[in-house]
Amino acid sequence: MRDTAIGLLIGTAGGLGFWFLGIPAPWLAGSMMAAIVAVFSKVKIGMPDWLRAVAFIFLGIQTGTAVSWDTVDRAVHWPLSIAFLCLTVVAITWACTAYYVKRSNWDPATALFASLPGALSLTLLLASGTKADMRRVTIAQCIRLFFLVAALPSVITWLTPPDEVVVMLSQIGGIWDILLLVAVSTAAGYALEWLKVPAGLMLGPMLASAGLELSGLIAGAAPPSILIPANIVLGVMIGARFANFTFREFREALVEGFSGFLIALVIAMAGAGVAAYVSNLPFALTLLAFSPGGLDAMTIMAFSLNRDPAYVGAHQMARYIGLALLMPAATAYVLRRMGMPVVTGKGGW
Question: Residue 240 belongs to what H/E stretch?
């Protein structure tokens, strides 16, 4: 509890600092930066599983309550956009793998798992069953997410034309509506988690809150008092992932991590540009949906930047579920083609 309290206090202070400076997405980026500084300053911070679960449930609620019948009407254009997203994911994985193998002399397994965009927990789980260098995989994935959270909000803000209309959602007013929303969404989240549905703790609340919104039982988005704590928890979670690395390792990995981030971002921008053109959507919105970060981080960033969270959440969820379902078979096939062993012994895959 002490480590958790310290982590939340540090994250809140970082968020407040970034908010005061007017930096985009302050609560997420600020809490992450403050947590990373604390970790390398030998401050022990913690984040228990139950608090992570609460953050995911609240994020699912926020995304679901952003759905309206107008969103349903616009969703007819999303399948084509999601198809371009799938091609972008394949291109990012191939390009980053080739870079790490040819320029950094990594073995193919390490390069492949370091390059897969999103689904960090599943990527690390699969990588642990191979000969991949887990420290390189972990730090490459974390550094890419670090740069995305630190830099992408400013890029999105810079790309947004001054006259572009952004999404501003009304808020739920009644306390009973909020209690109903949280109760139903929490039950749905744990139900899908029990059924082993990928990202169930977030997908369940998303579907449940969207159903309540479309049915008219509730109206409006959940208040910022829910979203800001979720931002802080997520930022501290990202920063705490660097606790197993020394500052020297972090510094040495910055070049390779930044190179991988740039490759992924350039390809994501190309895919987002095509999707924006064919779907007649703002480029800043499609870029946020196509960016190779985590489902939670990119969706929460959509709220922070007042973009369409339903569009971003749908694309990030589609990528996450697609990776969760296809990644084991696809990576096994790729590793065999590369001549790498897939099974490492008891418990391997």
Answer: helix 224-240
Residue % of the chain over a pLDDT of 70: 87
What is the per-residue pLDDT for 271?
92
Host H or E run for residue 269 = helix 247-279
φ/ψ bin of 41: left (φ > 0), alpha (ψ from -120 to 50), beta (otherwise): alpha
Cα 311 from Cα 248, distance rounded (Å):
39
What average pLDDT score do residues 330-348 get? Answer: 59
Comparing CA positions, the residue from 172, 173, 176 lying closest to residue 184 is 176
DSSP 221: B
Three-state DSSP at 233 gives helix
Instruction: Map residue 219 onto helix, strand or coil.
Output: coil
Can you tell me whether residue 116 is helix, strand or coil? coil
Tokens of 206: 């998303």
> Could you tell me the two tokens for 107?
């073995």
DSSP per-residue string spanning 79-108: HHHHHHHHHHHHHHHHHHHHHHHHTS---H
Residue given tokens 């990119």 in the structure block:
298
Average pLDDT over residues 21-50: 85
CB–CB of 301/284 below 8 Å? Answer: no
Which token pair is 292?
């190779």
- Measured CA to CA, the distance from residue 8 to residue 235 in angstroms comes to 10
Burial class for 343, CB neighbours closer than 10 Å (0-12, 13-18, 19+): exposed
> In this structure, what token pair is assigned to residue 24?
């985009």
Domains of the chain with bracketed CATH: 2-337 (1.20.1530)
CB 14 within 8 A of CB 235: yes
Three-class DSSP labels, 159-206: HCCCCCCCCCCCECCCHHHHHHHHHHHHHHHHHHHHCCCCCHHHHHHH
Q: How would you label 169-195 residue by residue, b for 16+ Cβ within 10 Å and e otherwise? A: beebeeeebbeebbebbbebbbebbee
Q: For residue 38, how many other CB atoms are within 10 A of its CB?
A: 24
Beta strands in 23-83 (DSSP E): none
What sign has the CA pseudo-torsion 120, 145, 303, 175? positive
